[in-house]
Amino acid sequence: MKAVKIPHIDTKKVEEMILALGAIGAHSGTGVWRTVYSNEWVAAQNLVADWSRAEGLDVRFDAVGNLWGRVDGVDGGKIIVSGSHIDSQCPGGRYDGALGVVAALVAIAALKAEFGSPRKPLEFVSFCEEEGSRFPTAGFWGSRAIVGRVTPQDCDTVLEATGDSIGSTMAAIGFNPARIAEAARNDIEAFVELHIEQGPILEDANLPVAIVDAITHIRQTKVTLTGQSNHAGAFPMDIRCDPMAGFAEVVTSVIDHAHTLGRPAVTTIGQCIPGPNSAAIIPRSVTFTIDARHPNPEAAALLYQTHDRMLSEIATRRGLTLETQILIDHPACPSDPDLLSALGRAADSAGVATMHMASGAGHDAQQMAKICPIAMIFVRSKDGRSHTPEEFSTIEDIVAGIKVLAGALYELAY
Amino acid sequence: MKAVKIPHIDTKKVEEMILALGAIGAHSGTGVWRTVYSNEWVAAQNLVADWSRAEGLDVRFDAVGNLWGRVDGVDGGKIIVSGSHIDSQCPGGRYDGALGVVAALVAIAALKAEFGSPRKPLEFVSFCEEEGSRFPTAGFWGSRAIVGRVTPQDCDTVLEATGDSIGSTMAAIGFNPARIAEAARNDIEAFVELHIEQGPILEDANLPVAIVDAITHIRQTKVTLTGQSNHAGAFPMDIRCDPMAGFAEVVTSVIDHAHTLGRPAVTTIGQCIPGPNSAAIIPRSVTFTIDARHPNPEAAALLYQTHDRMLSEIATRRGLTLETQILIDHPACPSDPDLLSALGRAADSAGVATMHMASGAGHDAQQMAKICPIAMIFVRSKDGRSHTPEEFSTIEDIVAGIKVLAGALYELAY
After folding, report:
1. What does the pLDDT average to over A97-126?
2. Mean predicted confidence (pLDDT) in A218-245
3. How far apart are CA B137 and CA B293, in angstroms?
4. pLDDT band at A3 (very low <50, low <70, confident <90, very high)
5. So where does Zn(2+) 2 get bound (chains A, B) (predicted)?
6. ∠ CA(B180), CA(B182), CA(B184), 5° rounding?
7. Higher model confidence: residue A380 or residue A230?
8. Which residues 264-323 of B are in CB contact (within 8 Å) with A?
9. Are A238 and B201 in contact (CB under 8 A)?
10. Which pLDDT value is given to residue A1?
11. Which residues 252-271 of chain A have a CB within 8 Å of chain B?
12. Per-residue burial over B7-30, b = 16 or more CB atoms within 10 Å of its CB, e = otherwise
C-alpha cells in the first residue's frame, strides 16, 4: 500500500474563506441566515464557484442547484467526492455545513497544487437545503436529488411557510424543476463529508477530530394524547381524564429510559402543544414529539418498541386516546469499513489524534450512502453548540480535520 | 321566625327567556358569543331591561354598564340583591351567567306579583365582563366597579387583543369612562348569585341544586424553568440540562399531590410553551402555568407552600433556573352563615333536595363580598360541562334553583 501524503493546508486562507462565507447572510453577530435559493444562498454558492475556478477546477451547478467542482483523473472512472451544504438554520452558525464545503474545496485544491492530477476524478459538492430551514419537508433536498429521491412532482408539493412551492422558487433563480431528475448521479465511488460535531463529546475527550462510525437512526414521532377538557376549578381531580398528566408520565418514562440505556441513546421531547393552551382549562389534548436516536440498528428497534409499549400502556391505563404519526424515520447509516480505515491512516499520517463516534445528527452523507460508500469526519465544536450563531470551532481543529480529509482523498484518488 | 313562602315560578316562561337570550349572539348551535359592550351584549341587556319594565320594575344602567332592576321596599333601607352576568366565553353556553340574570329577574317578579311590595328593596343585577373574554385583564369588571375596585385609569390601560381600550369601547356605546366611579355602591345588605355548577358533583350526587359554602382560593402561577438548549441528536443524555424533563417532574408532582389531598383540592397545568418548540432541539426553557385551588384558607396556604417547595427542589436538583410570577390570586371567599341558613330553609320549604359544596370557579359574588354578605346557589350541569356551547341544565333543575333563590329573597326582604 502506498504511503499517505498530506498536502500543505494554508491556515490563513481557510480562516479567510470561513469569514468571507460567514459575511454572506450574516446574522446576530457571528451567525448566518442563508436559506436555500435566497439571494444570500446564491451569493454564497457563487463565491465558492469563484474560488474553485481560481484553483483551476471545472465548476457547474446541477439541475437542483448543487454546486460541483472537479479535477479530472488521469485514469478516469468513478469519482471520489467530498462536500457538505451551504444553507443554514434561521439563524445558524458559520460552521454547520459551510465548513465541509470549504474543507472539500481546500483539500482538493491543495492536493491538485501539491501532487498534480489524481488517478481518479475528484469532486467537491456544495449541497442545497440540507437543513429544511426554508422548506420544512425538503431536508437533504440537494443530496436526495443526487441519489434520485426527488421527483418533479415534489417541486409542486413541497412548500415554504408562505405557501410558495420549492419548484417556483427554484425557477425564479433559473433552475428548471422539470429537469430535476438530471441531478441524479451513478458515477460516484466514495463520499466523505467533513462537518462540525454539533455535540460536546470531542471537547470532553480533549480531541480535535473524530472519525464517524455511523450516522444514528433518527425517528421523530408526533404523538397526541386526548382526554377530556373541563373547567380547572369545578372538575374534581378524581374524575378527570387529563392528557397533561399522561404527557408528563410519558416524558419522564422515555427520558429516564434513555438515561438508563446510556450513550449513544438519546431521546428528546422538543415540542409540546396543549389544546387548548389555557391556564384555567384542563386541556383536551396534548400533542408532542418524541425524537429518539440510536446508531445501532438492533438497539434502535428495541428503543422504538419500548416507546410504543410505554405510550400504549400509559394511555390505556389513563383512559386517554393515543394517536401516533412517524414524521421522520432515517435508519442508521454505517460508515464504510474501508473508508474508515483510510481515514484512520490519514489521521496517523497527519499526526491528528482522533476518536471514533456515531453522529447523533443527520447528514447529507446518509443520503449519499444510497449510491456509494460513505464516511464522515467531525471537528470539535465549542461547548458542543450548533444551530446557533454561537457555534465555533478553532482554526487549529479545522485544519486538523482538513488534513485528515485530504490524506484520505489522496489515498482514494492518487 | 316567619314561614318561608315560595312564589309560583312559570316554567314555560323561564324556558322561553333562556332561549330568547340564547338567540342573541347565538353560536355553534346551542352556544352564544356575547362579549361585553358588543352589539349582542347591548341587545341582551336591552331585552332583559324590556322584560323588567314589563314586570313593573324600575330599570337603569349604571356607569359601567351593569343593568339593575328594582322593586322598592315599604321600609326602605339597604337592598337585597341577586344577579349574575350576561357576557359569555368565546363561545360559551346559554347558561353560564345568563341563567343567574334570568333567575334573579324571575324570582323578584314572581315575589312581587304574588306577595306585593317587600319590606326591603329588592334588586336584580346583570353584571358586565365577568369572563374577561373580550378584555383579558378585565374579569369581574362590572362587579369590581360596584365594589369600587375599578378606576378611570383602568379604562385606558385595559386593552382587548385588537389594542382598543375598554374605555374607548364603553364610550362608543354611550358609557362615560370618566364617570365609572359612580357605579360604586354601599347600600347593599346581601347578595345571592345563582349559577350553573360548571362541574359534575351534583350530577354524580343525583341532586338538582347545591348551596355554595365558599368560593375557592384561586392562584395561577406562571413558571419558567430554564436549562440549556442543544441539538437533540448530538448532545448525550448524561450532560443535558433539559427543562422539559424538569417540567414533566413538576407536572407529576403537583398533580399527584392534588390527588393525594383529595376533594376539594384541584391543580391544573393548562398551558405549556417550550422555547423553542421544535422537535429536534432540546428546549432552552419551558414556560407553564399552575392553577391550584382550595376553598379552605389554611389548606390553600399549605398547598401553595408545597408547590413552591416542589418547584424549588426540582429546579435545584436538576440545575434549572426557576422563575415564578403569580398571575391571579383570589383568596377564598366564604359564604355568609346567615345567608346559608336562609338558603337551607328556602330549599326545605320549596321541597328541593340540596347538598353543600365549594365553588371551584370564580364568580362575581366574590367581588360583591367586599361590600356585603354573599352566598350562591348552584344548578346541576349536564356532564359538568361549561364554557362550551354544550353546557346544559334541565328546566326542572333550573326552576328548583329559582325556587330556592325566591324563598331566600322572601325571607330576607319580606
Report:
1. 98
2. 95
3. 20
4. confident
5. 96, 131, 387
6. 100
7. A380
8. 264-274, 276-283, 286, 289, 291, 293
9. no
10. 59
11. 252, 255, 258-259, 262-271
12. bebeeeebeebbeebbebbbbeeb
Cβ atoms of B343 and B198 within 8 Å: the answer is no
How many helices (H) does chain A have, and how many strands (E)? 12, 18
DSSP labels for A252-318?
Answer: HHHHHHHHHH-TT-EEE---EEEES--TTEE-SEEEEEEEEEESSHHHHHHHHHHHHHHHHHHHHHH
List, as one string, the DSSP characters of B108-149: HHHHHHHH-S-SS-EEEEEES-SS-SSSTT-TTHHHHHHTT-
Spatial distance between the Cα atoms of A310 and A316, rounded to a whole number of angstroms: 10
Question: Percentage of residues in chain B with pLDDT exceeding 90?
Answer: 94
Whether residue B67 is predicted with pLDDT greater than 80 in this model: the reply is yes
Give which of A133, A146, A122 is closest to A367, Cα–Cα.
A146
Instruction: Please give, rounded to a whole number of angstroms, the shortest distance from the CA of B62 to a CA of chain A.
Output: 30
Contact assignment for A233 to B198 by CB distance below 8 Å:
yes
Q: What share of chain B is helix, strand, coil (3-state, %, to 5)?
A: 40, 25, 35
pLDDT at B1: 59
Our CA angle for B22, A239, B351, nearest 5°, is 60
Calculate the CA A85 to chain-centre distance.
Answer: 9
Give me the mean pLDDT over the A313-321 stretch: 98
* DSSP string covering A101-121: HHHHHHHHHHHHHHH-S-SS-
Indicate which of B268, B286, B325, B379 best probes the interface with A, i.e. most A CBs within 10 Å of its own CB.
B268
Nearest to B90 by CA among B173, B161, B14: B161
Residue-wise pLDDT tens digits, B312-337: 999 999 999 999 999 999 999 999 99
Kindly give, in sequence order, each residue whose CB lies less than 8 Å from that of residue B385, ignoring residues fewer than 6 positions away. A230, B93, B198, B391, B392
**Residue A8, annotated as binding a ligand:** no
A121-135 residues labelled b (16+ CB within 10 A) or e (exposed):
bbbbbbbbbbbbbbb
A210 pairs with which residues across the strands?
A355, A378
Fill in the amino acid letter for B209. Answer: V
For residues B336-365, average pLDDT: 97
Residue B96 annotated as binding? Answer: yes
Peptide bond into B297 cis (omega under 30): no
ipTM of the complex: 0.89
Domains and CATH numbers, chain B: 11-215+332-413 (3.40.630.10), 217-330 (3.30.70.360)
